[in-house]
Amino acid sequence: MARLVSLNPVNGTEVGSVPITPVDEVPGVVERARKGQVEWGLLSLEDRRAYLLTAAQRIQDAADTVGRQLTEEMGKPLGEAVGEVRSCGSGLAEELDEMMEALRAETVVDAHTESTIFYDPLGVCVAITPWNFPFAMPHWLVLPALMAGNAVILKPSEETPLTAQAYFELMSEGLPDGVLQIVHGAEAQGKALVDAEVDMIAFTGSREVGKHILGQAAPNLRRVVLELGGKDPLVILDDADVARAAKFAARSSFRNAGQVCVSTERIYVPESIAEPFTEALVSEARKMAVGDGLEEGTRVGPMVSQRQRRHVLEQLEEAVALGARILTGGQASEVGNFLEPVVLDGVSHGMRIATEETFGPVAALIRCPSEDEAVRLANDTPFGLGAVVFGSDEERAYEVARRLDAGMVGVNRGVGGASGTPWIGARESGYGYHKSPAGHRQFTQLRVVSKRA
Ligand code: NAD
């Protein structure tokens, strides 16, 4: 059987491999899921919770080993990799409780009618996921889909099959046959699953692939939830604490080598503080030690693949040709996929780097004459995942935040909301969403049964 080989982005050596699922086996996988779903869907919420909760300890126990493999497979620093795995285990009980509450039937009564809203399983759900958080991204889709009573087929990224395989093994242990399966492969396997007799496609990945999936799912009116790419702006107001804003910008632009859907991809800075802010940002960027994620002290590991690095370098070259200036970084290693964090000044919206997703370690600076202009430019892309505003007058910063066309906006902090809030993209960054009670219900079929009151 053909194998999918996982390569270490530090040096191109093989980390391991998994068997590729032949496309003609996909219908059989779906059939097995369909059979397994019947009893799984009939279980009570409490019973499903009990099954799924057993994974919490297994994930915690495996966090160090799986985290190490994750670093070897996609490059992020070891501490972040272990943290990614561990958090999925430590948060499991609370997440299941929240899901259980969200999925309980509700009764609504008026003068004449008593109606009950049921959150029933949809049936077979396909989860297609990316490589940048190769443990957490499968988890974010698989868990709510399973808890809602669906059978799930996971199709993880071809870049990170080993981490996904580890997730699958930890999560599926003890589950009834067919309830959770994994299909390894790339575009062909993804397409075959979207075309198969399934009930829902939950996807996290790029906007381009999301659009394909939506189109491919349309003739059969398949339920689709898409969490897509972003081009998150950071709007800095003229009263912002420059040092704090620069620290945030560096972390948010360079974490995971910029390969985060809610990375800061462009920074709007007022002319009045542009100089001190730029200086502080350059100094923060130079502190970001680049290296093998397994080495202590590494803040920025290699990019996941040559392809991803080439994409970033092409955007950079175009921007420089159009007048942008690299103030620090930009050195691409000969061995491995390293790229030194870049601070790019003089960026304008005629450059792709200002409006298309970069997904690399680049802080792109756009100097703005006014707050209104910053807001206008921040909203000048088709994306709308996250956005951040920094300013000392919180009320004013909050008002600016409300003018930004994004699904999640942070004021003097990152975009992640309080627990129980959705993970959601506006505009072309999302179609449906997950997390939060309403997000958990997207993995269900609502049914209303009414009788006389
Ligand atoms: P991608 O869209 O290239 O691939 C994602 C998955 O889709 C992979 O498993 C891939 O094999 C599969 N696929 C590819 N073509 C397909 C097709 N035609 N039909 C079905 N499946 C197909 O994305 P990527 O490069 O793996 O990940 C990076 C992207 O993911 C970035 O755009 C990033 O912003 C986005 N992302 C978004 C979020 C979010 O929550 N909004 C989170 C993480 C990553």
Structural features, described:
This protein has helices spanning 26-42, 45-74, 78-90, 92-103, 136-147, 161-172, 187-195, 207-217, 242-254, 271-287, 306-321, 352-355, 371-378, 394-401, 436-440, and strands at 3-7, 14-19, 106-109, 113-121, 124-128, 151-155, 180-182, 200-204, 223-227, 232-236, 264-270, 325-328, 342-345, 362-368, 386-390, 408-411, 430-431, 444-452. The chain is an alpha/beta fold and 453 residues long. It has two domains: 3-228 and 426-452, Aldehyde Dehydrogenase, Chain A, domain 1 (3-Layer(aba) Sandwich); 232-411, 3-Layer(aba) Sandwich (Aldehyde Dehydrogenase, Chain A, domain 2). The strands form four sheets. A seven-stranded mixed β-sheet has the order 12-13-14-11-10-15-16, with helices on both faces. Strands 7-6-5-8-9-17 form a six-stranded mixed β-sheet, sandwiched between helices. The chain has a three-stranded antiparallel β-sheet with strand order 3-4-18, with no helix packed on it. α2 (45-74) packs antiparallel against α3 (78-90) and α2 packs across α4. The chain starts with a strand and ends with a strand. The model has no long low-confidence stretch (mean pLDDT 98). The site of nicotinamide-adenine-dinucleotide has 31 residues, from α7 and α8.
